[in-house]
Amino acid sequence: MRRIVLFLPFLVFLVLGVVFYFLLGKDTQYMPSALIGQPVPSFQLVTLEGEQVKQTSDLPKGSYLINFWGTWCPSCHVEHPYLMTLAEQGVTIVGIDYKDQQAAAMQWLRDKGNPYTLVLMDELGQFGLDMGVTGAPETFVINAEGKIAYRLQGVLNAQSWQVIKAYL
Amino acid sequence: MMKQLLICLALFGFVNAAFAEELMTFRSELNQVRYQSLIKELRCPKCQNQNLADSNSGISVDLRQQVHNMIETGKTDQEIVDYMVARYGTFVLYRPQNTPATFLLWYGPFILLSGGVVLFVVVLTKNRRRSCK
């Protein structure tokens, strides 16, 4: 009995070692969205061209991406070319111009190309709030049932696409 | 010398109070107190360990504004907290909810403490028995 007790610290060390080993290399910043499995919150947003008001029922049928971006966001510059690649591959992307200026955003799409099937303006960030967005860029995967399946915080690139693809 | 130091200290306090604070008007003193306590208890979803009151990130500014709006439109504290949790998850709560998932968090220390007390008593009685022999 005494002997076993003496080995207790070593056992604790082993257990902690295993736990810590599996936590190595994990992204501590990763936070799943609180909205996973829920439908897209209802909204009324104006299109970037400022002509039409769109609501939840105007969203695409089938699976698609919702991408929050803004001309003020440096990472969105990095992300944009990859969004163009995805659009060419036939991925449907809805763009939300998040807390941005209309003129600047239109210029951006003219200069860099428009990967979005629909661009909506969220000037005050209210829709972003309802989606639980903490910044830009953020990308949500909406599955064929219209439910939010995945949320990516940060740049969408070839690497993160490998993960996202599976949720579409 | 002493006087200058005091002035410096007083000004320092003023700077601290002005940090991360927008100009907001409240309908009543109570609303302002509720606002202050809510933004201290809610965590900035973008930052690893800051509350809404301390953070100057864009999202914190927006969420403070949202808390202010909800208080002024007559929402209760619970409604505001529920609103935040629905969007940002339990991550935003600095005071974790009491659910089965957080059982160890709430009661773990007491379980460990009672284990320690039991061990202490066992060792004590053992030693006493030994010294009696």
Describe this structure in words.
The complex is a heterodimer of chains A (168) and B (133). Chain A has helices spanning 2-6, 8-23, 74-88, 102-112, 126-130, 158-165, and strands at residues 44-47, 53-55, 64-69, 93-98, 118-122, 138-142, 148-153. With 168 residues, chain A is of the alpha/beta class. Chain A has a 7-stranded mixed β-sheet with strand order 2-1-5-4-3-6-7. In chain A, a hairpin with a 5-residue loop joins strand 6 (138-142) and strand 7 (148-153). The longest helix of chain A has 16 residues, at 8-23. The radius of gyration of chain A is 21 Å and the shape is elongated. Chain B has 133 residues and is an all-alpha fold. In chain B, 65% of the residues lie in helices and 0% in strands. In chain B, helix 2 (29-41) runs antiparallel to helix 3. Chain B starts with a helix and ends with a helix. Chains A and B meet through loops of A and helix 3 and helix 4 of B. Chain B: Possible subunit of a heme lyase.
> Which pair of chains has the greatest number of interface residues, and how are they split between the two chains?
A-B, 16 and 15 residues
- Into which percent range does the helicity of residues of chain B fall? 55-70%
CATH fold-level assignment of chain A? Glutaredoxin
What characterizes the major β-sheet of chain A? 7 strands, mixed
The biggest sheet of chain B, with number of strands, parallel, antiparallel or mixed sense and barrel status, is: none
CATH class of chain A: Alpha Beta
Per CATH, the superfamily of chain A is Glutaredoxin
Overall shape of chain B: elongated
